[in-house]
Design goal:
With 484 residues, the chain is of the alpha+beta class. 49% of the residues lie in helices and 17% in strands. The strands form 3 sheets. The chain has a 5-stranded antiparallel sheet, with helices on one face. It has a 5-stranded mixed sheet with strand order 7-9-10-12-11.
């Protein structure tokens, strides 16, 4: 048994990856800190260099193969002339005219009977047997040729006096670069092509990102004092144009939200200032003429304004909670039962309720918020009804255009009053915060101007709608919620 292997030191294992790849994190950080223009230019340059090198290598290989094939044909032709002379007459000297070509004539005994001057007195350059093919080609390195030199050897069969002789013709192989000037030209052209492609890539990227720079510069100058400014739209119909258009639409929505928030703040301040001013006036009158009033009288007078303050603050808090979008626990709620409960616990007034809820109309929602929605609708109806408020609850099939919103059908709630009604052109106005249809902003009818906006927000939070629809008399509020 050998000795057990030593347990590695955990601290060494923790340091080992850092020792093996000390610059990996640094290189990644460098890459991520580079601009998009630099990254794309670098990528384009590397790809262009690789493609140009591949193109140059492919071109040189093709030229080399073509030149080699042409050389083999030339060697074969030179040897074929000698074969003809061997077969039909005496051999004519010199065997070849080109000084780099070599020829040997070998008889059937394997002896060299004639050769070019460079190979005089040397054995056969190769041991090739053309056989029935009559022509065989091979590459021979060394041997009777100079050291480290390779030659293309073509062996051809010649028939002389009924015997098979062999004519060898040879020439040095062509350099992989074919010719230094050719190689320099191809490599230079490939390098120039890589540079041109890189420069064009850089120029295209710079031109493409120029609108982004303009958009960023304009966004930097947009503040709360200039919300109406927009980023420039590039002339090209590309992704950057779509981005700029989307940014402008977002800015428009933000401007609208900012204006709505400002109007809301202004209206809220105005609504709060009125009861505060009334309270202040009553208190100042009591202080200036204490003998003309009493604490109960002052308290009863001030309590009306305090009630209004409490209602406004409560509605503002309700809107804030709805806009915050806090967690809501939805549960099945019987809408007909909820309407019956809310109608029965309404305080006794001179307004009469008529309701005929269809049983089994169940929706999924927050019972407390749905009760608040009904309360706001009933309060609004009581303020404007002449004598009667009618409430209907029924189920309805899903409309084809809203199958996704109401997959299981629609729960419909209608609250109808017999008051003066609402002009169709002003039906959306009542759902705006602190909106009143009269120009004098009469407050004698009561209400904070927030009940209907809160009701619509609750309906939309439950995936439904709240609209004002046509009615023979008075106003007809229609709530639609998805059935369970």
């Amino acid at each position: 048994m050998g000795s057990p292997l030593p347990t590695p030191n955990p601290s060494i294992l923790g340091v080992l990856p850092l020792m093996c790849f000390p610059d990996e994190g640094k290189n990644m950080n460098t890459w991520h800190h580079m601009s998009i223009k630099a990254r794309i230019t670098l990528f384009t340059g590397v790809v262009a260099a690789l493609l140009s090198a591949f193109l140059a290598a492919t071109l040189l290989i093709m030229i080399h193969r073509y030149a080699t094939g042409d050389l083999i044909s030339e060697i074969t032709a030179a040897g074929g002339r000698v074969v003809y002379e061997v077969e039909h007459s005496d051999v004519v000297k010199p065997l070849v005219a080109h000084r780099e070509r070599n020829v040997q004539i070998v008889n059937d005994k394997g002896a060299v009977v004639a050769s070019t001057p460079q190979l005089r007195g040397k054995p056969a350059m190769a041991d090739l047997n053309p056989g029935r093919t009559h022509i065989t080609t091979d590459v021979v390195c060394g041997g009777i040729f100079p050291p480290a030199q390779c030659n293309i050897v073509v062996a051809q069969t010649a028939y002389r006096a009924g015997q098979d002789w062999i004519v060898y013709s040879a020439s040095p192989t062509i350099s992989p670069f074919v010719d230094p000037w050719l190689a320099a030209t191809v490599i230079g052209a490939a390098a120039l092509l890589a540079v041109v492609i890189t420069a064009l890539g850089h120029r295209i990227v710079a031109a493409s990102l120029r609108p982004v720079t303009a958009i960023r510069a304009e966004l930097d100058n947009i503040t709360e004092t200039s919300p109406d400014r927009r980023v420039p739209l590039p002339s090209s119909q590309d992704e950057i144009h779509d981005l700029a258009d989307s940014v402008n639409r977002t800015l428009a929505r933000l401007q609208a939200a900012m204006q709505q928030q400002r109007r809301f703040t202004s209206d809220a301040s105005h609504e709060l200032r009125t009861p505060i001013a009334a309270i202040r006036a009553e208190v100042e009158d009591a202080l200036h003429a204490p003998e003309e009033t009493s604490v109960p009288t002052l308290g009863n007078t001030v309590l009306g304004s305090v009630d209004r303050l409490e209602a406004i603050v409560g509605d503002l808090l309700a809107i804030a909670r709805l806009e915050a979008g806090g967690p809501v626990e939805f549960e099945p709620v019987d809408l007909a039962e909820l309407v019956t409960t809310e109608c029965e616990r309404r305080p006794q007034t001179d307004k009469r309720y008529e309701y005929s809820p269809e049983p089994g109309v169940v929706v999924k929602g927050d019972r407390f918020r749905l009760s608040r929605l009904l309360t706001n609708l009933f309060d609004n109806a009581e303020r404007h009804a002449a004598s009667t408020i009618t409430v209907h609850v029924r189920r309805s099939p899903s409309p084809k255009r809203d199958m996704q919103r109401f997959p299981h059908g629609v729960a419909v709630l209608e609250v109808i009053d017999d008051g003066p009604g609402i002009d169709p052109s002003k039906r959306e106005l009542v759902f705006q915060r602190f909106a009143r249809l009269d120009t004098a902003r009469d407050r004698h009818a009561g209400g904070t101007g927030l009940g209907l906006p809160i009701a619509r927000q609750i309906a939309e939070a439950h995936g439904g709608t709240l609209e004002i629809e046509d009615s023979p008399r008075g106003a007809r509020f229609v709530l639609r919620l998805p059935l369970c």
